[in-house]
Amino acid sequence: MDWPIPFDELVAVLRSAGAPASGQATVRHSSMCYGCGEANPDGLRLDIYAGEGVGACTTLSADWRLAGDENFIRPGILAAAVHEVADHALQQTGLLASVVNVKVDFPEPVPVGALVRIGARVIGAFRNRVYVDVTANILDGDKPVGSALAIFECEA
Ligand SMILES: [Zn+2]
Known about the structure:
156 residues, globular, single chain, 1 helix, 6-stranded antiparallel sheet, binds zinc ion, mainly beta, Thiol Ester Dehydrase, Chain A
């Protein structure tokens, strides 16, 4: 990834004491959240789980509701899911921060009907910014369909 990450300056960010254990469900933003809300009829309704370290993961079902043309889902929908999982990874830190940038590469299209595994991991902080790395792969596939960096800015 050729994005500007101050790797030499990053400091570790730890899980908060109250964060769910790896494999346990993370806390939904609201029942109507477009990403994780279980009651939003038009949303992605992602079930998101705490990952290893300071991270989160989910499986996106690329159903027909997400379709664009040529039987592939819209990359912007995948970007929304990537942002959602990055946000849940940040949630594991207990930090109050707002997203200021999400950059996503789409190396391969996602066919309708695929299951996409999305994993996010907090890679560190520099000054008031927290950096989260996200990858998306088709389940049982060997090629990534998404690679992303999300940057959050902590509230003063
Ligand atoms: Zn949400």
